[in-house]
Amino acid sequence: MKAIITVNAKDTVGIIAFVSTYLSEHNVNILDISQTILQDSFVMIMLVDCAKGDIPFDALREGLISLGEARNVTIRVQREDIFNAMHNI
Amino acid sequence: MKLINTKNVLQTIEMIESQHLDIRTITMGISLLDCIDPDVERCCEKVYEKITHLAAHLVKTGEDIEHEYGIPVVNKRISVTPISLIGGSFDKDGYIRLAQTLDKAAKAVGVNFLGGYTALVQKGMTKGDRAFLESIPEALASTERVCCSVNLGSTKAGIDMDAVRKMGNIIKKTAELTKADRGLGCAKLVVFANAVEDNPFMAGAFHGVGEAECVINVGVSGPGVVANALKFCKGEPFDVVAETIKKTAFRITRIGQLVAKEASRRLGAEFGIVDLSLAPTPARGDSVAEILELMGLERCGTHGTTAALALLNDAVKKGGVMASSHVGGLSGAFIPVSEDAGMIASAEAGCLQIDKLEAMTCVCSVGLDMIAVPGDTPESTLSAIIADECAIGMINNKTTAVRIIPVCGAKVGDRAEFGGLLGSAPVMAVHPESAEEFISRGGRIPAPIHSLRN
Fold first, then answer.
1. pTM (2 d.p.)
2. Could you say which of 3.60.10.10, 3.20.70.20, 3.40.50.12100, 3.10.129.10 is the CATH number of the domain covering B25-193?
3. How many helices and strands in chain A, by DSSP H and E?
4. Interface pTM (ipTM) of the complex?
């Protein structure tokens, strides 16, 4: 299963590092990363493949969200299908 | 090759987080035809068993989908076979027992509403139907989550004016029995002409007899998303407005289709339909009235409102229909006054009145919805309002409905608070001139002719 992870933060230092470290610890493969600036907030979007992950999707999602909260950044983890459904025919 | 389309990802997230895009309801339709039993207690037992078995995982599945896809699934609900058919041999008390059983089952599985306390009397009433109608006020007053609907007319059958007359009385009684809650019972009671069998929205949801054993119907919502898209169309001609709404409706409906398929697969139920309705909530920026005002009206309810709503309703359907494999339910824009911040403001300013709302129901998906009127409104006036709506539905071959709340002790200009998604309704004026003699005639208004259309 593929998922889109989005991270909103004011500061960029170390964000990719802590998210990718967490993902690699759980054997989640990063397929693509994109970054952009949105209303002076930094937004990072990751496409990941959770198929070989060592924890269930829900646990992965909750883990990332609480990791984000600890660093005062907003992290969302959503199945990729919702974006495909909305924008591709 | 780039795998992430940043613009698409951010647009979807913005729609959900800033523009109130959500799945308004996942409604499980359950057939209760195999629960029919001449013994009230045995019937109740079978009904309770069946609902709690089939819907055991409904709420959990809705929550799982919400978490995994990151889209709010606001309501998880159940609709059942019209109860007047299930308790055909019961008396009034038997039906009330059934209503209480439905309430208990709804609470046991954790859904916030269960629809299908319903009778279909568009052409006439059986003995069971009469007992059922008599049970409605007490059934609604003694339950919390049961929703009731009655179909009073259809294009094929005409209008059952005996039942229309009875409903005026039933609505008044329900308001009186629930007056401590500002007549909340009436917010759970809707009358229809041309009721649909696969509607996932309350209070009018029921599981039609032509439906399968267990079905998932999904209602999406997104007035805020449409309103936001129209902010970029200022001054453009209507062709551009219609195209913009169509594209937006397509995107919204695709999410509904995805969720409906996923929910039905996980619950082992058939995928029924996606209902393309634009359902407002009292939240700021989630208003159908705001969409109409963005088209250039100073206030929703002024001249031009009917035309604006007609365009909106049609464009929503055109955009949504290609996005889903099965479209059904009510599919269009809802105009519940108490649930729409823009409608409330317009009604309070004296611009939006019942007569204009009635005109709007000719072109939108349902009818006079969540309208509070003074508590001393005569029964015959309520019946006459219902008769007007049924006539619009019957002649125009569309679904129309009335959900009206006579608020005991309230007068025009007061506001009745219902709380939550039901919002708060400004008490609106009705015409003081009597329709008593008209309503007391009874009988049936014959079905219309459908050649010579003008």
1. 0.94
2. 3.20.70.20
3. 3, 4
4. 0.93
